[in-house]
């Protein structure tokens, strides 16, 4: 965590334990994922059985290979620990839990590598690994719940809402000292499906602790894909996966025609697409882990507690909270367009519980604590910062509900502590810059990034440059924006199309600003913009996610074709003059940069949008009939006005320029089809803002409820929209909004009772 992976490699190089192997896997994982470097992870694609690896030489292993190696060693060590009387015996966890945690951590990292891999087969395998890790971690936390009840002097039949209370088990077992989700051999009998009581943690714990790692891939959670029972008794990681034919992937994976069995009821999910319009039915009835409501069910003590006198208990507790917390957040943030992926995993996520667990893990001064702190800060500064419909912060309620809004003081304290622990790491400088941007201090954020020393990690250097590029874009510093994004091309190969497109768009703005006052200089920017933008499609399509072209690549390819068509046919002008509504402002909207601007920067955005309708743009008179161009302008202007608290003006623009337009005019061909769902979402945000006003001015709970209900309606319509450009980006906001609205209603019901 001090950006010195070389020293980490050297320190771990001589060890052969599960912990050393896990450390080596983490190093490779960081190299691969911090910069989305495909070269680091791609070569490990064909390793499906850990025991086929040459573990004597790890110097040239890829991330996939190292993680498979670590998983194999953790499996062996866990079996040994469960049968070795000299092995560590915790007062909290069953024997072998430390190795079970290592196994789960390798599976989580391998899952991320698999999903980021361009192979569809590896992506699907990654989701199954998430499922198996989920169940293993759940077993560890069930052991904590049982321990807390013992410590509090409560009977084991005391009602408690445990970590597995909502999982729909189909498995019955006899008590044993095996690790829940562990790796011992043996088989248990199956009984007819029977869901556990919502208040029976111990029953679920007894069921889970007979789960064997050789059968983790077949654990009955009430959900089986394919409509049949899996009788295979082999290790899931040795199952044969054949690479899908990537040439036909678009036709093969567009829909799934199998069946889903849930609690003995088989339902057809024909035409179940990851872009399913019926998002209300997505992952219907999948179990959602509940946040423990009884204090004795939650191990949330500080590191100096006598509970954590043994360092292995500290490792298990902090690691389980880190991994299960992250997994819950990941699952809860899946946007509606990817909701069908939850069928593979079998569970929903619980964001509130996930963030609580990450806060708990961040207390500990070890690698797990550092990772947890990084994820917590990333969650607030990036994911919450990206969303609009979020709860308000309540400084007095942080202990009870740490995810509400943006707990500014608590995040600042965490950042200060992490910088104290890891003074050489640029990851914390990056989070400090993001924190300043979230608080609408873009100049300070850029200053931090420009004056930082060079990181020893190229991947972190690339992240810093990318963050600076975005902040320069939000600040309308177009020269800096273009130079920074071009620098990203030399530091990272994640999305050359994105870097080129935004760099070119910055020169479009410079051309427009100088067109009247300095034609010669404007011409230079026009040439540069044309060069960068026309080169963008050449970079598009090279990167894939789950064997599909990246959504942004699809977006920019269509956009360039649209402008070329306008130049040649519709407007009969140069390419640079055929560019429509400010592409930079459009990118700011998609990255929600308006939320990071101060009032003067928001006024600058309004002025840049105003140029479109001015006499300086003679092409606009031809665009008046282009409904999709007018809709783009309306959505961008409304979002800007909303952030200036000019809510009535924003609403009027959306209703007149987008909502009143026939939907067929806003889609098809080369048109921008994202404006209609975005307008519905923006209307929801306006309602949420008015709810806040009603709460503050004493209008009463009825008025608040009215605005919440209207907000739900607009967000619900946006969630059900058919597929459109960059729907996953808007989908993240929608998913957060739906979660916020759900929790608001739950709290209101609790307050009434």
Secondary structure layout:
Blueprint: H1 5-12, H2 18-34, H3 38-42, H4 63-83, H5 97-116, H6 120-151, H7 201-208, E1 223-225, H8 249-253, E2 259-262, E3 265-268, H9 311-332, H10 342-345, H11 351-361, H12 367-386, H13 408-421, H14 426-438, H15 442-450, H16 458-474, H17 478-491, H18 496-514, H19 519-539, E4 544-545, E5 548-549, H20 551-570, H21 575-578, H22 583-590, H23 599-610, H24 620-623, H25 627-643, H26 647-659, H27 675-696, H28 701-719, H29 727-752
Antiparallel strand pairs: 1-2, 2-3, 4-5
Helix pairs in contact: 1-2, 2-4, 2-5, 4-5, 5-6, 5-9, 6-7, 6-9, 9-11, 9-12, 11-12, 12-13, 12-14, 13-14, 14-15, 14-16, 15-16, 16-17, 17-18, 18-19, 19-20, 23-25, 25-26, 25-27, 26-27, 27-28, 28-29
The structural class is: mainly alpha
Distance between the termini: 47 Å
Please describe the biggest sheet, giving its number of strands, its sense, and whether it closes into a barrel.
3 strands, antiparallel
Principal-axes shape call = globular
The percentage helix is 55-70%
| Unreliable sequence segments | 43-57, 157-296
* Rg computed from alpha carbons, rounded to a whole number of angstroms: 27 Å
What is the residue-mean pLDDT, rounded to a whole number? 77
Order of strands, widest sheet: 1-2-3
Strand-residue fraction? under 5%
Oligomer: single chain
Number of domains: 3
Number of helices: 29
Q: Number of DSSP strands?
A: 5
């Amino acid at each position: 965590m001090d950006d010195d992976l070389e020293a980490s490699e050297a320190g771990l190089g001589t060890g052969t334990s599960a912990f050393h192997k896990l450390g080596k896997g983490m190093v490779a994982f960081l190299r691969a994922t911090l910069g989305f470097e495909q070269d680091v992870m791609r070569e490990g694609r064909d390793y499906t059985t850990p025991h086929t690896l040459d573990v004597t030489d790890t110097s040239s292993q890829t991330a996939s290979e190292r993680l498979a190696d670590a998983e194999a060693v953790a499996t062996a060590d866990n079996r040994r620990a469960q049968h070795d009387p000299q092995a560590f015996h915790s007062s909290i966890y069953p024997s072998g839990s430390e190795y079970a945690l290592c196994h789960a951590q390798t599976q989580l990292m391998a899952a991320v590598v698999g999903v980021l891999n361009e192979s569809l087969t590896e992506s699907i395998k990654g989701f199954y690994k998430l499922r198996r890790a989920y169940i293993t971690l759940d077993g560890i936390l069930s052991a904590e719940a049982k321990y807390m009840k013992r410590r509090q002097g409560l009977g084991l039949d005391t009602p408690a809402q445990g970590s597995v209370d909502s999982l729909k088990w189909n498995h019955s077992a006899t008590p044993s000292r095996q690790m829940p989700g562990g790796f011992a051999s043996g088989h248990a009998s199956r009984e007819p499906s029977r869901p556990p009581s919502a208040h029976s943690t111990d029953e679920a714990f007894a069921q889970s602790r007979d789960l064997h790692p050789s059968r983790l891939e077949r654990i009955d959670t009430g959900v089986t894909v394919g409509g049949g029972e899996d009788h295979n008794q082999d290790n899931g990681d040795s199952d044969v996966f054949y690479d899908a034919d990537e040439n036909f992937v678009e036709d093969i994976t567009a829909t799934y025609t199998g069946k889903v069995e849930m609690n003995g009821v088989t339902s057809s999910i024909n035409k179940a697409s990851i872009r399913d319009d019926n998002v209300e039915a997505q992952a219907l009835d999948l179990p959602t882990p509940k946040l423990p409501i009884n204090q004795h069910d939650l191990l949330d003590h500080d590191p100096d507690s006598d509970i954590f006198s043994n360092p292995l208990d500290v490792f298990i507790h902090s690691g389980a909270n880190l991994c299960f917390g992250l997994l819950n957040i990941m699952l809860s943030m899946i946007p509606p367009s990817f909701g069908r992926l939850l069928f593979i995993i079998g569970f929903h996520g619980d964001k509130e519980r996930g963030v609580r667990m990450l806060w708990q893990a961040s207390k500990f001064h070890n690698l797990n604590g550092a990772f947890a702190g990084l994820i917590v800060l990333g969650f607030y500064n990036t994911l919450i910062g990206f969303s609009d419909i979020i709860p308000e912060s309540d400084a007095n309620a942080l202990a009870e509900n740490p995810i509400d809004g943006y707990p500014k003081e608590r995040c600042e304290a965490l950042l200060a502590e992490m910088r104290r622990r890891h003074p050489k790491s640029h990851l914390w400088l990056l989070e400090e810059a993001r924190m300043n941007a979230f608080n609408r201090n873009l100049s300070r954020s850029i200053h931090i990034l420009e004056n930082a020393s060079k990181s020893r990690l190229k991947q972190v250097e690339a992240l810093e440059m990318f963050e600076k590029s975005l902040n320069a874009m939000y600040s309308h510093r177009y020269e800096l924006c273009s130079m920074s994004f071009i620098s990203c091309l030399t530091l990272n190969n994640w999305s050359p199309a994105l870097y080129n497109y935004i760099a070119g768009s910055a020169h479009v703005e410079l051309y427009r600003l100088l067109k009247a006052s300095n034609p010669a200089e404007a011409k230079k920017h026009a040439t540069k913009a044309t060069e960068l933008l026309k080169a963008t499609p050449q970079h598009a399509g090279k990167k894939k996610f789950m064997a599909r072209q990246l959504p942004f690549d699809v977006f920019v390819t269509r956009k360039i074709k649209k402008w070329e068509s306008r130049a040649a046919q519709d407007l009969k002008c140069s390419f640079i003059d055929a560019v429509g509504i400010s592409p930079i402002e459009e990118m700011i909207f998609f990255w929600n940069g308006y939320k990071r601007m101060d009032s003067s920067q928001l006024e600058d955005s309004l002025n840049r949008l105003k140029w479109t309708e001015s006499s300086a743009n003679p092409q606009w008179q031809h665009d008046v009939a282009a409904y999709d161009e007018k809709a783009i302008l309306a959505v961008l202007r409304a979002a800007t006005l909303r952030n200036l608290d000019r809510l009535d003006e924003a609403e009027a623009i959306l209703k007149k320029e987008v909502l009143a337009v026939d939907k067929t005019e806003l889609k098809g061909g080369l048109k921008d089809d994202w404006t209609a769902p975005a307008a519905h979402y923006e209307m929801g945000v306006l309602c949420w803002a008015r709810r806040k006003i009603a709460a503050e001015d004493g209008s009463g709970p009825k008025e608040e409820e009215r605005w919440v209900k209207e907000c739900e309606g607009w967000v619900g319509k946006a969630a059900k929209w058919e597929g459109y450009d960059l729907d996953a980006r808007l989908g993240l906001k929608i998913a957060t909004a739906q979660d916020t609205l759900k929790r608001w209603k739950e709290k209101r019901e609790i307050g009434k009772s």
